[in-house]
Design goal:
- The chain has a single domain, classed as Alpha-D-Glucose-1,6-Bisphosphate, Chain A, domain 4.
- Helices cover 28% and strands 44% of the residues.
- A hairpin with a 3-residue loop joins strand 5 and strand 6.
Length: 154
């Protein structure tokens, strides 16, 4: 299993950040390798089930995410199935006037088991860069959205 985790401060309320994150189609705008994300359905817990396509090293990885733990505006935990199997966790904590957003993911390295020892360090470096980029893009997207538009997202 491979785990990656990092966080950033976002100058917006937890409610506004949560509402921004909670739209699967919007996730492509801040997730670097995500080429497609579309809502399949809203679940009884209020969370989403969505189809995704990640492009990693020129290879499309296709599957679904399902919000298994949906607690607005504090967290969404996604079960990820398909070419990638694992868990994505989003935590939102109030910090001053804004939000501390933490992204964490744990997944099984794809591919034949005999290649996993060689792939794991490559994917770890790749994921560390991706998560730093994701956090920066998310912070930029939210900070460039006018406050009144963020309030409407709620």
């Amino acid at each position: 299993m491979l785990t990656v985790r990092d966080s950033t401060y976002i100058d917006a309320s937890c409610e506004a950040v949560f509402a921004f994150l909670d739209e699967p189609a919007r996730q492509v705008s801040f997730t670097p390798s995500l080429t497609s994300s579309s809502l399949i359905e809203r679940l009884p817990n209020g969370g989403a089930r969505a189809r995704y396509v990640f492009r990693i090293y020129g290879i499309d990885l296709v599957g679904e995410v399902r919000a298994t733990d949906y607690d607005p505006p504090s967290r969404i935990v996604w079960a990820m199935t398909g070419n990638l199997n694992g868990t994505i966790r989003w935590y939102l904590d109030p910090e001053g006037e804004g939000t501390r957003f933490t992204f964490a993911a744990t997944y099984r390295v794809p591919g034949p088991s005999f290649l996993r020892p060689a792939l794991t360090p490559l994917l770890r470096r790749y994921n560390d860069r991706e998560v730093r980029s994701l956090l920066q893009q998310l912070r930029t997207r939210i900070s460039s959205t006018p406050r009144e538009d963020l309030e409407r997202v709620k």
